[in-house]
């Protein structure tokens, strides 16, 4: 009987080694670019950390006088900072990259007294970000990783709200924005709009400006993104709402958000259908429509162009599109007030925007 012999050619051995090493090469080099990224989830540790922050903010807010009037005597907060209790706007920047339009925002804030606003930045710690300068310096709060199509964007926004509530009792409005947003009016125009429009309704709290939509062809798929009927009984389909990720909330509603435990138990669940999973567009509109729909305008102050969206992203404006006509057009609204902010702008729009900043954007 002939004895079987195996080839010992170096070429054959090399081929065998390549075959054996292919799975390792795939896992470490090819898989990350070919396979969808692993979805971030809300861990118990994350939840407990946030709960501790929320409880501190709720406790302080309950012992502080709400910032409703325009002038109150100076006092000292528990954090040691002096506050006049003149109502302020808290700007909450949620970002996973550099704040591209920092120079434009600096012009926006330089128009007014620093006692009329506060700035808070939630920056994804897993991504290197150039330290902000000027009025943005040292404004990054303790942050955690964020990811699109996951509840981490909701927890980041809640973390921003709680930090702002805890930091300054004079914060009366809380405006969530991003690195792709720009202002469409001067700060003084925004301030007068938010705090003067309520003069004839002195017995009511400030109105929140958040988009709340109850009818949309995508609503059913979004509702079942975590599994069929998983949201019940806390949220029935008839209670489920959709809206813009960016809003301006009153202090009362900001407190309602961080006080919530019931709805958050459902919205923090991981999604099965990631393509229909956008918790940040549903949690806030759903919660506020359930607890105080009449206290919400149902409109957002941030203009977004969805006419040619790609993969769930709105239209991105590029330098050739930037003009005074674009700014005036973006301000136009179907409601009784104009838009105050707009997105989404590419980083290279900074230069043309700065050219028309004083003559157009901040000239009201």
From TrEMBL:
Pfam families: Branch
Annotated membrane topology: Single-pass type II membrane protein
Keywords: Glycoprotein, Glycosyltransferase, Membrane, Transferase, Transmembrane, Transmembrane helix
InterPro entries reported in the protein's UniProt record: BC10-like, Glyco_trans_14
Cell compartments where the protein resides: Membrane
Main subcellular localisation: membrane
Protein known as: Core-2/I-branching beta-1,6-N-acetylglucosaminyltransferase family protein
Organism expressing this protein natively: Cinchona calisaya
